[in-house]
Amino acid sequence: TSAIEAARQQVAALKAEGVFTIIALTHVGINVDRQIAREVGGMSLIIGGHSHTPMGPMNNVRTPPYPELIAGPDGKPVVVVTDWEWGRWLGDITVAFNAAGTVIDLQGNPTEILPSLPADQGFENRIAVFRGPLDQLRARVVGATAVDLDGNRTNIRSRETNLGNLVAEAMLAKARNSGATIAITNGGGIRASIPAGPVTVGQILEVLPFGNTLALVTLTGAQIIEALNNGVSQVESGAGRFPQVAGLRFTYDPSLPATSRVTSVTVDGKPIDPNADYVVVTNNFMLTGGDGYSVFTRGRNQVDTGFILADVVEEYIAANSPVNPAVDGRIAI
């Protein structure tokens, strides 16, 4: 289901319950938020995330404004806001609606989270209760890497990296006994690098902070090509859907139309068979269509294994330490 269609369905369901003021909380990026505002009637406010977009005072040019008003399909204004990234700003918006749910007054005053802001001591005390055992867990060394592992945001979302290869290979190693021969994971789920040397639990959790689990799905070769095309369709914007892979090699041309950029895919040195079935290991976010991978929702034999991806990578590093992954050309441009 596309974000647009999902929004339409939810608005209809809420209106059927008598709701007349609808506020959407999304994580699809500001461009999709704007599209939802323009195309889906019945919403008054969209509070979004995912694209890490600074608005208003969060950037030097103060555009887009905070908040941003988008005309809905009925001509009524829809408020769109996001508060950038990583807790740097606290969003603050006051909205007044009339009885029909139409915005009639609006004030936005986001606050930058500066070191000079006084901490709430009660909150700090609660953090201290949990910090000790968590710090011990984070500091536990599970293995070592002989090389720097590249999870740089720009790199992991646009090209093959050795850390992307390691994560994909760890997934495939865990799922081979279940018949998997290919691994595809989204680069946007890999959030940090690891320097050469000892590797701790904390570093792995920084790389893979979302708690995603391994998932299995049977796809045809044609569906795998479709998935890879989705993965490279927004490479120019640094979208998180860029695929990091194991068990296959592919070439793509970013100058081609977004839906047909993949020019070759090989498995075991041979062109992928569009009609053959392949068991693919991915993550549960992608299995449900996350990052545009709707093709996975049409696959067969879908299974969420429950294995947490961070635990799988920890296990793989411990078993193969010191790891020394390389960029081997499995993704070519």
Q: Mind explaining what this structure looks like?
A:
- It holds the Pfam family 5_nucleotid_C.
- This protein is of the alpha+beta class.
- It folds into two domains: 110 residues, Purple Acid Phosphatase, chain A, domain 2; 193 residues, 5'-nucleotidase,  domain 2 (Alpha-Beta Complex), CATH 3.90.780.
- It has a five-stranded mixed β-sheet with strand order 13-10-17-12-18. A four-stranded mixed β-sheet has the order 1-2-4-3, covered by helices on one side. A four-stranded mixed β-sheet has the order 16-15-14-19, covered by helices on one side.
- Helix 3 packs across helix 6 and helix 5 crosses helix 10.
The topology string of helices and strands comes to HEHEEEEEEEHEHHEEHEHEEEEEHHEHE
How many DSSP helices? Answer: 10
CATH topology of the largest domain: 5'-nucleotidase,  domain 2
Which structural class should the secondary elements be placed in?
Answer: alpha+beta
Protein name: Multifunctional 2',3'-cyclic-nucleotide 2'-phosphodiesterase/5'-nucleotidase/3'-nucleotidase
Organism: Chloroflexus aggregans
InterPro entries: 5'-Nucleotdase_C, 5'-Nucleotdase_C_sf, 5_nucleotidase/apyrase, Metallo-depent_PP-like
Keywords: Hydrolase, Nucleotide-binding, Secreted, Signal
